[in-house]
Give the backbone structure.
Amino acid sequence: MSAVPDFDTYLVSARVTAAEVIAHGVRLTWTDGVTTEHHRFVLRENSPDPATTHPLSREQQIQLTELPPDLEILAAAPAANGGLTVSWSTHSDSGVAGALAESTFDPGWLRTWASEDPAQRALPARVEWRGDLDLAALRFDGPDALAGGSEWGAWLAAIHSHGVGIVEGLPAEPDQIDVLPGRIGPVRATNFGPAFDVRTKTADVTSNAYTDLELPVHTDLDTREYMPGLQFLFCMMNDAGGGESRLSDAAAITRHLRDNEPEIFDALTTIPVTFINKATDTDYRHVAPFLVVDDDGELIEARWSPWLRGPLRASIADAERWYVAARCALELGDHPDFVVEVKLRAGELLGFDNRRVLHGRGGLDRSQGERWLRGCYVEREELHSRLRIIARNERASAPS
Ligand SMILES: [Fe+2]
């Protein structure tokens, strides 16, 4: 296997058939007819030789400022490994970084970095859904997931693709809340602690979640600059009447608004809202639109806050636009066209993307019993990292 300047394994889908030196770089032609171009400093900084890439850390150990600014590729040719070999203009008076004569690059590394969106590497595509989602298809076996079996990776993939997945059959013990989430990455503590209990209280009621109230769908902690990316709710008991969990996909709602209600979409994606919490000992505030979208109008994050909003600071005209829009969106969020319901059972762990999938619950009738969920948060980027590592390990163990 060829050396690469990181710990990944790159599958080789094609080999270099021709290499042409061009201004400031090289143009490659591949066996499948694709051409790619590579800048001289991109190649030089990522040369896998041990003087450039530390053999243990695999981090770059030369500095860009050490490289001669007029460094050029003197010659380029297909390498025996199917990749590329380049000869560098050498500058023996400028130290190791300027003295390297030649580098050879792995074909899979060259091709992957030239053609693949690195942010999406190994991540399943987003699947948007509405009220007809078959949530049964997003249920996974707890004992297998705990043992690190295939259900573990499948659950994580579902949380990324659909924004939701349920692990069932876990021991209904309080400590279970962070066992699987903690294997994704560090649990993110908040002012509610590393884990929180969702059960009805009569004192110290710091959230509507701690009442019997029906909760419209929402995202948690919209008031934070960096909202928790993933939320996990573990069911200890659910014997009360009602109390079904409700979920809806803000990505699907955003697309619906973008395609059908452009004025509402515009108001919700541009008018800033002040999100504030109400508490005696914390005062979090964040200003952002209700829906944060990318250049294509695709949802990045929803701050779907039915109740954690301060007074809207906008002109009368903008406020009028915003309130019309927010009313429409909030109604859609709780509409059967978009909502799926599930009544969690003891030992079930619901994981979802807190910045995409909205969650709420039906009101509670505790004459029949209690409802007790435990919750915690993990960041989205921990899920991305874990999915990439799972995929990397699969590539490394795949027959070459
Ligand atoms: Fe919540």
Notes: DSSP finds ten helices and 23 strands in the chain. The CA atoms of residues 5 and 48 lie 5 Å apart.
